[in-house]
Amino acid sequence: MNAGVKPPFLPYGRQVIEDDDIAAVVATLKGDYLTTGPRVAEFEAALAEATGARHAIACSNGTAALHLAARALGLGAGTTTIVPAITFLASANAIRLHGGDVVFADVDPDTGLMRPQDLTDALARCPGGRADAVVNVHLTGQCGDIAGIQRVAKSAGMRVIDDACHALGTNVRINDVTHRIGGNDYADLTCFSFHPVKTIAMGEGGAVTTSDPDLAKFIARDRSHGMSRDPQSFTQAEDALDGNGEVNPWYYEMAEPGLNYRVPDVLCALGISQLTKLGRFVTRRRALVASYDALLKQLAPHVTPLHRTPNVDPAWHLYVALIDFDALGLSRADVMRRLAAQGIGTQVHYFPVHRQPYYKAMNPNLMLPGAEAYYRRCLTLPLYPSMSTDDVTRVVCALKRAIRG
Ligand SMILES: *Cc1c(COP(=O)(O)O)cnc(C)c1O
What we know:
Elements: H1 19-29, H2 38-51, E1 55-59, H3 62-72, E2 80-84, H4 89-97, E3 101-105, H5 116-125, E4 133-137, H6 146-155, E5 159-163, E6 171-174, E7 177-180, E8 189-193, E9 206-210, H7 213-222, E10 227-228, H8 237-240, E11 253-254, H9 265-275, H10 278-296, E12 303-305, E13 312-313, E14 319-323, H11 325-328, H12 332-341, H13 357-360, H14 369-377, E15 378-381, H15 389-404
Parallel strand pairs: 2-3, 2-4, 4-5, 5-8
Antiparallel strand pairs: 1-9, 6-7, 6-13, 8-9, 10-11, 12-14, 14-15
Helix pairs in contact: 1-9, 2-9, 3-4, 3-7, 10-15, 12-15
The structure holds pyridoxal-5'-phosphate.
């Protein structure tokens, strides 16, 4: 590195916006619709195509997607939903926002993913030994045993919500059949986020996919105040129809109050453009991950890549290294500061959600050893498609200095 020339800062994640993305947004901005317009349905069709989903409903962000999923499945007061402890706050909050109880499951200490046994153990801690649903989080873009999770869920009468905010583009092979995350072969509903650090960026954006037409219909209405303009759904003929039996052009009906979780046409234009690049982005992420894996071998055994689950082709939203800070005699905060001083951004995904003050107050004595062992060692290193292989080398050299220096 040239002395005196500061190399650019590498954040842990960021969007890649290209000229055609900008052109797509500008074209929509010059059109007739800022919010709901033709780009919304076009984006939904493109997302359904990309994931193999029967129905895709776009909404304002991933948290809204999870909240809509909780409402669609009726996970309100008197219900219990199991959520893994290592995830973003929203996976659990979405259930609480609808009034449902959350019971946290432990995770595999080496992947951060909930295993079928973790789900069974959490179920035993639920009131009456029963739960209504499980949120399965595909942390970093990997998946655990989705068939095993579904088996436990089905046998206990639980619905499955996939929190796939990390996993757009991830495939799982089960018995020689490839299943796309979002296709809902092993879930009732799948939620996505298009926040700038996720696999594709819309600024703010989210979506729910499902195979169930009734859930899809509910979510599409709930996203916009619970309003329906579908004449088939009208129940008040005397208000809906004129003297000739024609539908009154102004008329809409609401059976249940909903939210405003609509996503603007302008952002869907960006989403459509970004989705065309999903394959390229995922390929690039996988190549960068392979470079990290190879280079990190120099730092074994105290630094290792996240363990890999079998039969999964992850889209890799995050690159998480497991670092034995105790054995190195270093604090994670010191390592993060030393990396930041070398222009390397890092993060921790995640502080166990059951230890957030709000959840801890509900269950002060809950101990989840897998989540603790994962949390103690995890550090997220920079990963995004516009990084170069040299950037990966730079990160690993900086990490070597940070833990040896
Ligand atoms: C990003 C994320 C969300 C929330 O998505 P937003 O679009 O930021 O609201 C939910 N769950 C997980 C696992 C996430 O990473």
